[in-house]
Amino acid sequence: MSILCVIPTHRRPELLATAIRSVLAQSTPPDRLVVSDDAADPATLSVVTEAAAGAAIPVEYLPYQDDICTAGGSRNAGFQGAAEDLIAFLDDDDLWEPTFLERTAAKLAANSDIDFVVSWLDHVVDSHRWPGMRMAEGLSASDCYYPNQGMNGSNAIFRRSALAAVDGFDASLVVANDLDLLVRLLEAGFGYAVVKEPLTLQVGHAGEHLTTRSERRALGLIAYGQKHGAKMSRAQRRDIKRVVHAARRGKDRGLPARGWHLAGQLWYTSPVRFLDGARNRLSRNPEMFNRGGAPGQPK
Known about the structure:
With 299 residues, this protein is of the alpha/beta class. The chain is 40% helix and 18% strand. The protein starts with a strand and ends in a 17-residue tail after the last helix. The relative contact order is 0.14.
């Protein structure tokens, strides 16, 4: 089966170059790689041009522009009109282990009842690596409305037919468009499998992330909650409110506002969530997605 890889990117040429290298180093390389750039950035184009010159597969640059540029919109643009059987996405600040495509595509080839495959992932900051999301098998849409049970924008491969059936990503969602895709696929009855090895790496860096605490993230989570809230359990709706308050505790807020949102976050924090947070702190898990850094809009 043929494979297309799409990398959505936004003004991160150095990170992009590393992501491209991890795609080209796959034991089973894709048949084509498309870099979907929502900033039409000359430095990004230069990185893609250099990679294409030495690659054994076509490496294409796609300038993507819209009124509201989102990662979901960039991903949709990258696979629009694709003829490949399988589509895999890799964010520009993430990496794949060399066997990611080989292992995930093999599961799809072996079982026609499976429409997408998710790998486990790890977090990496500097020289430190620790476990990230570990998706389980057999989850339903109701299990997954919130929080994310293990699929992000980089650790899954899809049959093109399944993506087309649900119209791809919801480009209107600023955040959580990967989670939204997961629940819509499950609602539509598409089956999945899991590779229970961390074949995807989320790399912490000093720049801004979609998960950086900000009003933009808070509004994005509210939009996701409005879309799926009627189907969520009470606990899931509370969890959304907790994370919205957390997002509004950004460093751009004054101390009174940060204190107010800390109180709101604690109010909506269940004992289970509190214990999970305590375990993360005790393991010295760095807040890789809240380290601040250069201003600017994330991808």
